[in-house]
Amino acid sequence: SRHFGFLCARAVTTGFAVYLMASMVRLRAPTVVGLWFALWSIVPGIGYVLAALPLVAAAAVRSLPLAAILFAGSVVLQILDLRFVQKPIEHATLRIGPASTLLAVVFGVQLYGFGGAIVVLYLIGMMVAIGRELRGGEDRHDLYTQLRRLLNEQDDLLDEHRSSTLPRELAG
Questions:
Q1: Which DSSP string do the residues of 73-116 spell out, in sequence order?
Q2: Are 120 and 107 within 8 A, CB to CB?
């Protein structure tokens, strides 16, 4: 649920920012453009580039340099998103991956629009989390190792405390 919440927060932020930029440059239908980018921002690694493709194609009709700048800007935005947004989200929650997310968006939109994409994405996230929990992945091993080390350190401290509080006759 936390992963899904982070993705929704990113989608809302992206959609609003794109809406504002589209309004400033007087693009037709800025709300639709903002929603389009919000939807595709959910797909990690390629979402912004895929969302920009229709704009790049429309710009290419008027000016190839403008289309190249738009495409390059979407690639840079995608790289920045991966580095500063997606990695912290995956570090704090779980990694679903672009393929599963893309399938969720495509099938969800076909089933029931934007709401369908969100529901299918949430279900895929739950399936990934359950699968990792059943598999007992690396995270569980790391947590187990850390807990075992902590318990061993506590046992060592307890042994040291016992040996220092024992009467000298029993300690020797």
A1: HHHHHHHHHIIIIIHHHHHHS----HHHHHHHHHHHHHHHHHHH
A2: yes
pLDDT surpasses 90 at 13 = yes
Cut 0.85: pTM above it? no
Q: Determine the average pLDDT of the residues in 63-85.
A: 92
Question: Which residue has tokens 């919440």?
Answer: 5
DSSP 8-37: HHHHHHHHHHHHHHHHHTT-S-HHHHHHHH
Pairwise CA distance, residues 134 & 163, whole Å: 43
Distance (Å, whole) CA 16 – CA 61: 27
Nearest one of 53, 35, 5, 171 to 109, comparing CA atoms: 35
Tens digit of pLDDT for each residue in 27-49?
889 999 999 999 888 888 888 99
Q: What is the distance between the alpha carbons of residues 92 and 24, in angstroms, rounded to a whole number?
A: 35
CA distance 52 to 129: 31
